[in-house]
Design brief:
2 helices; Immunoglobulin-like; single chain; five-stranded mixed β-sheet; 2 domains; alpha+beta; 8 strands; elongated
């Protein structure tokens, strides 16, 4: 008995399998193919993303005096998703080993839109040579921060 027909059948199966794979890959790259793959649950619809940024980073101070009363913190939450989202945000002050929540809130942002938020908060320079202003989102877990140097309000003796 010859093994030649058996080898031909095996190679034919391999060639067919490769051809099916190539056709499936080509269909998956086409718009119609992606829609079909999404419909059967093999590919997820992109959910978009959220961005968090200081509204005007150049307006954040580089230095604060210890007598500084309050500082405006402005940031923007952008929803680049396809559905409205609720965001819970908070502003924190970190100085040395101390961190405290200064402000917080919630905002609903429609798809493709942004929510500018501005708050006036006290950031006293009392526990070290610099402070860090931190803005957090709870979900998705996002954070931005800025370092500010604490300048002593006391004058050095001459």
């Amino acid at each position: 008995m010859s093994t030649a027909p058996h080898n031909v059948v095996r190679w034919r199966g391999v060639v067919i399998l490769i051809a099916v794979f190539i056709v499936a890959a080509a269909i998956g790259q086409a718009t119609v193919g992606r829609a079909a793959l999404r419909k059967v649950g093999l590919v997820k619809v992109p959910t978009g993303f959220t961005s968090l940024a200081f509204r005007s980073p150049q307006s954040l101070p580089v230095q604060l005096s210890s007598a500084q009363k309050a500082l405006a913190v402005s940031f923007v939450i952008r929803n680049a998703g396809s559905a409205a989202r609720d965001y819970r945000w908070s502003v924190h002050l970190a100085q040395g080993a101390h961190t405290r929540r200064v402000d917080g809130g919630e905002v609903r942002v429609r798809p493709g839109r942004e929510a500018p938020i501005s708050r006036l908060a006290k950031f006293p320079c009392v526990h070290g040579p610099r402070i860090r202003i931190i803005v957090n989102l709870a979900h998705p877990n996002e954070a931005i921060g800025a370092w500010v140097v604490c300048r002593s309000s006391k004058r050095k003796p001459r």
